[in-house]
From TrEMBL:
This is Efflux RND transporter periplasmic adaptor subunit. The keyword Coiled coil applies. The keyword Methyltransferase does not apply. Keywords: Coiled coil. Residues 71-199 form the CzcB-like barrel-sandwich hybrid domain. One of its GO terms (cellular component) is efflux pump complex. InterPro entries: Beta-barrel_RND_2, BSH_CzcB-like, RND_pump_MFP. It holds the Pfam family Beta-barrel_RND_2. Residues 103-137 form a coiled coil. Belongs to the membrane fusion protein (MFP) (TC 8.A.1) family. Gene3D superfamilies: 2.40.30.170, 2.40.420.20, 2.40.50.100, Helix hairpin bin. Residues 217-288 form the CusB-like beta-barrel domain. One of its GO terms (molecular function) is efflux transmembrane transporter activity.
Amino acid sequence: MKNNKWLIGGLLFALLILLFLYMAGVFTPKLPTELQSVQRNVMTLETVTLEAVELPAVREFAGRVVANQRASIGARLTATVAEVLVDVGDEVKQGDVLLRLESDDLDARVQQTEQALSSAQARLNIARKEYARMKELFNKKLIPVSQYDQADSALKSAYADFNQQKAAVVEAETTFGFSVITAPFDGVITQKPVNQGDIATAGMLLLSMYNPESLLIEVNVSESVLPKIALGEMLSVTLPSYKIALLTQINEITPAADSGSRSYLIRLGFKTDKTLYPGSYAKVMVETDTDKVLKVPVEAIYQVGQLDYVRIIKEGKLQTRLIQVGEDYRVRKGLVEGDVVVLNPGEI
């Protein structure tokens, strides 16, 4: 019985080894990385002879989508949050009320200062009349100069008190206005860290928003690239997350380099019907000097797993060759100028 268990265990282990070797492709004929000759009548195949061409060398830089018009709205006084009228993602118009703070005390303060201003206005009116009467009597030499000076001082004091109370009203009304938070421009709410009942303190963030019509792309480019770009120039940009390509225009080039990276910030304007969001990753392509490159037609490439292969004709024979290609199917390794590649090799 014990021997049977060992036998069964050994068979299972052997089967697992065979399965692993099969999945690894040991029993499948491999395509060599070296040249492999294939007997075939090459005269009937559609081919292309590779020629090097002058193409602009392209540098790629990582950028991001940002909103040129954005706002972080903070509290300008300490008060309880009475009402929050928006949520993250809401679209708002300029002047819309977004949030209210408790304002009962502020309203009472406005009323008190307005009453004090009314009293100061009444005292000023009386002082004016008294001064006018004293001035007339003084001109007729019916009162001494001291009595006239007293009326003049009373008028000046009344003016000072009136101006002080008027400033108090303006201050109270301004503070009351801080309790009502409105949208500074058309946009979308991105942050709402407070809720009804929270205590807002001066300087505390209440809401954040941005204008989706003001989106642009920011990217830092190296110092060596800067002489090759100019304001108004068009640059190609891809947004991998959205699977779209854009043609953008250089709207701004920061004249000072970042001291750490020695790079320069540029801002790119664009137009698109797609809904984009700030913070999205962007690939910015900058054309520099021209370079002689070899490109292989995409129709000539076929894949085995993750590897790229082509079939070429050399000395009248069909051969298989492993290649490496980069952007726009530029040949990095495996082919040279003058090689004759077969189109649609998968049909062979």
